[in-house]
Design brief:
Blueprint lengths: L6 H7 L14 H13 L5 H10 L1 H4 L7 E2 L2 E2 L4 H10 L2 H15 L7 E9 L12 E8 L4 E8 L5 H11 L6 E4 L6 H9 L3 E6 L4 H16 L6 E4 L8 E10 L3 H6 L8 E11 L5 E10 L2 E2 L10 E2 L1 H11 L1 H12 L13 H18 L16 H10 L1 H9 L2
Parallel strand pairs: 3-6, 6-7, 12-13
Antiparallel strand pairs: 1-2, 3-4, 4-5, 7-11, 8-9, 9-10, 10-11
């Protein structure tokens, strides 16, 4: 196979500083590429990666730089992978893969970028010497790609990590959505500084603000205020229950900006009401949630005004935010074995976690050919796509070259 198609990926890997001495047997770009390919093929730890590489040595040598021994190309030992991944600077690897993803993701006006954190349960040291690794992710809801991630020390530090993550990403003209933990004035300012709009859930961590918005909507909805924008979602009767959702939005909030002037470019507030009827118990619950946004609630045509939003779009953004849970966090655990990983020493857990997220992007960006593997491509799970990578060199190489 031709070496040239892989140069783009290897050129990025060459930007990762090598923590070893100069006289090494295996160049760092080749070693990182082997790990990426092995994880695509369902390998989960250093031992499996080394075993896979040994079996595929001749194929790997056709496009990677590997030393040649008496019996042909040699591949790294398990201990080599472990030593290197414990020492490679994860921040450098994250920056490289964020640059990769920028080539996969197509920036578009109004796209939604959801930000939320996830803890790797298996990375905790049972002896108590190390806490579990916690990563905060930026998720492109439309293209279903991990735009970037950043490690934090604990859930309380997510608040300070969000502005740092935004500095690494291109979110210009996007809508960045976050949960109530991140309903912070500094976070709103950082999002606007990045050229994006925000949609922030409001709860009692901003007590006065939450009370003001709640009282306003409670009264306005009861009085059927004609200035409120209103939207109703299609009922959902799956999972043994009936869910009905409505949204109300208001852009006439000069009074709120006067009471809370520190919120950068605050233009609208949103109330989303969910009614749930449990078929088994007959119990009905009603819940209202509240949001701040720099989008401008309006009924005008939206084509030429991407920062305008009607109630229907705002309801879609609220619901779309939780795609990060079932389309990213759930898939990382089920398809990628994120929580099951027992790699725990030094930088190893973070570096492997970063590569797993990039593998998820590659699989999403390269669905199998429709009908080739017995079912439509959109029905082939991520877990099965990894199996296909291990069986089909052509599909493995296609996925690898998506970067």
């Amino acid at each position: 196979m031709d070496v040239k198609p892989t140069r783009g990926l290897l050129r990025y890997f060459e930007q990762v500083p090598d923590p070893r001495a100069d006289n090494v047997s295996f160049p760092l770009p080749s070693l990182l590429a082997i790990v990426l390919l092995a994880v695509l093929c369902r390998c989960e730890d250093y031992d499996e990666i080394a075993c896979w590489a040994e079996q595929r040595a001749k194929w790997l040598a056709t496009f990677l730089t590997l030393p040649v021994g008496e019996h042909g190309p040699r591949t790294p030992h398990e201990a080599t992978f472990e030593r290197v991944f414990r020492r490679v600077n994860p921040a450098s690897l994250e920056r490289v893969l964020i640059a990769f993803t920028a080539g996969l993701a197509q920036a578009s006006t109004g796209r939604q970028v959801a930000i939320d954190g996830k803890t790797l349960r298996g990375s905790v040291d049972a002896a108590g010497r190390r806490s579990a690794l916690h990563l905060i992710h930026a998720w492109d809801q439309h293209q279903r790609l991990v735009l970037g991630q950043l490690a934090v020390d604990g859930r309380s530090n997510e608040i300070t990590a969000v502005p740092k993550l935004l500095e690494l990403l291109d979110v210009k003209d996007a809508v960045v959505s976050l949960d109530a933990m991140h309903c912070q004035k500094d976070t709103a300012q950082a999002i606007r500084k990045a050229g994006a709009d925000y949609l922030l859930a409001v709860k009692d961590n901003q007590k006065t603000l939450h009370q003001d918005i709640k009282l306003f909507f409670d009264d306005a909805i009861e009085q059927r205020d004609e200035h409120l924008l209103h939207a109703v979602a299609e009922p959902d009767n799956t999972h043994g229950r009936l869910d009905e959702r409505q949204a109300w939005a208001c852009g006439d909030i000069g009074w709120l900006r006067q009471r809370h002037p520190q919120w950068k470019d605050l233009r609208g507030i949103v109330c989303v009401q969910g009614k749930r009827l449990d078929f088994a118990t007959g119990k009905q619950t009603v819940m209202r949630r509240y949001y701040l946004t720099s989008l401008r609630p309006t009924t005008r045509p939206l084509e030429d005004q991407p920062r305008d939003a009607d109630a229907s779009r705002l309801l879609g953004l609220v619901r779309g935010h939780w795609g990060i849970e079932n389309q990213l966090h759930w898939c990382l655990d089920v398809a990628m074995g994120d929580d099951a990983s027992r790699v725990r020493k030094d930088h190893g857990p973070r570096n492997l976690a970063v590569l797993r997220r990039h593998v998820l992007n590659l699989l999403r960006a390269n669905p199998p050919e429709r009908g080739k593997y017995g079912s439509p491509s959109d029905k082939i799970s991520l877990k099965r796509r990894r199996l296909i990578c291990s069986l089909d060199d052509q599909y493995l190489l296609q996925s690898f070259l998506q970067a």
